[in-house]
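RETRY 2/3 - previous attempt timed out on the joint model. Re-submitting the same 733-residue input unchanged.
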Amino acid sequence: MKGPPVAPRFELEDRPMARMEPEPLPVAEEPRGGMGSAALLASGVAVLVLGLAVLGVANFVADQFARSAVLGWVTLGVAATGFGLLGAGVRRELKGLFALTTVDRIRAGLESGEPRRIAAAARAWLEELPDGATLLPTLRTLNDPDAVLALLQARVATELQQRADALGRTAAMQVFAATAAVPSPALDALLVGWRGARLVRQIAELHGLRPGLLGTLALLRRTAMAAAGVAATEAAINAAARAALSNPLLQHLAGDVAGAGVAARRMVVLARAAAAACNPLPPART
Amino acid sequence: MWLSAVRGLVPVRRTLRIGVTGLARSGKTVLLTSLAANLLAAGAGLPALPAVTARLAGRGFRVAPAPGGAADLPRFDTTSQLAALARDPPAWPGRTRAVSMLELDLEIGHAGLLAALPPQRVRLQILDYPGEWLLDLPLLGLGFGAWSAGLLRRLEKRQEATEFLGFMRAIPARPAADDALARSGHRRYRVLLRSLRDEAGLSALQPGRFLMPPPGGEPPWMEFFPFAGEGPLADLLRARYDAYVADVRAQLMAPAFGQVDRLVVLVDLLSALHAGQAAFADATAALGEVAEALRWSGPTLLPDWLAAILGFGITRVAFAASKADHVAERQRGNLAALAAAVTRLPMPRGLATAAFAVAGVRCTEDVVWTLDGHPVSAVRGRVVGAERAGRSWPGEVPDKPPGPEFWAHPFLALPDFEPMRLPLGGKGGVPNVNLDALLAFLLEDVL
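RETRY 2/3 succeeded.
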């Protein structure tokens, strides 16, 4: 049974009190993204297109078998080859996309500070790099994590950086020359965009990644994020851009073609940003 | 909801007007200050509004004060209001004496593949105004005769009105349009309104500007009073009343409530519970009248339910009981339910409603206090001027309009607690109660 209500009350405490401090705010837990509406729509369209295509081809193969066994086997072979090639393409795309997560994993390992994880991450990175296998015996002799990182910095990162810069300079010269030759500004934009995407792929391959279309898109996004950090090395980029355009003919052209120098400089920046996005070494060490 | 989501993809800034209806001292100015400070802090990436952050799920969110441009209305002075709350000792805002507009620009990023699109841009507009003026809104639908007759009928039951009613009875039939008589009646009526507010604790007092005059000199059309008779004096008073109503429409209705998309019915129920049965009934009736007046303010000729579905007019209504930090967490559910119950209105289908117990600025912490051998959930805060802590158990908050038995145990007056210290001097937001939930509801289709 409920008792009588407790009468309202107010009471002043005796001790003085400092101004109240708020409780630390809880950090809001962000719900896991899940599939957005656009992803659901795209998935639905893909399932319908692919599923109906498979069903249509299956029906067609069955009809061909009804006509003649030979025709049926030939049609089945054609269908299997076609779908097999499609599957291989999709597999390669996905592999290229997931290869980017390898960079994150190796970077986390190299930044962990734990000797074993650093050594394992270094080994994994060297195995990914085209010429990395030659350094594996040296790596096995090292016990000190700082020595491992120093080796990666001196023998791998520096060389990769130089080669990435060389690719950037080549792209810059090509873009510069092409911008001077192309008559339409709209074509300029197309050319710069295409050359930029190709440069990013080249640098990814230099770092042992083989990004497909999806991988390149993801890499471009990462590169855009890495560009903010790269902007700090403004002087180095200016020097690299000047070096790329030191040819007297190009310097003469630069006076006539407004914007060509800017586009070329962007290629140098892009090369640096793409290298930063593909390089798992902590930024302070590169 | 879906229409709002589609509208969010169009790269054109959308303006959302939130009408806050709150009687005097209900906490509008504090609420606006806290809303602005917390939105700005959340836009800077600080966890000031957890429910809003959770709703955004990692999407970009930027908030900035809207540029002033060549706007007619003065800007709401967030900076100085915040500075007053942040300084030591803090100061609560005084009575609001003029209209001002709080405008914030929000940029909300899209999710998934749509993230490449430009962010959704929303301009949030909320008006601050003297709460007394809110009671002028029902006048927009009332003629002078009907207003006077209803008011005089109500005044006949009040002891405080004896002198004014005596003056009214002394006026001869069909009086001349005498300016001195009009001025005298006006003065007496104003005195009566003040005594009804200060001594009887009533809220439904009209016209609101008689209690809180606008800044600057008063125009001659302010000098009228309720009069049920006929003749030249009645014509003069009617003309002045009409001019007053036209000014209310131009100064308050058009800028603040003309095209309201969202409505917050803010009510200080705890103070009303303390003021007694008559004052409680009067306050809730006044709020109902105001909310009813706003229903016909919609710009559309469509039926209410269709307008709500298409997103025209008011599409979301939040009933918010203010000063919720003066009761413990356990009682806030009841407080929110009471806020919804006392302002019950016939809502069109498709209109989203929700009730909240909020505090713009939090002043207390919850404590368990043993009283008469029973543990109760009380609150504890630093009392203004005393520099000592006070514990308060104001009584049980009912979850519906209370019956006669409730009034046998008077509800405690709300102690004057000091605001908590503001994180980063206000730049880190303002400690509050449930403001994030209120905002997440009001902006649900935008976020």
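Chain B touches chain A through 53 residues (CB under 8 Å). Closing ticket.
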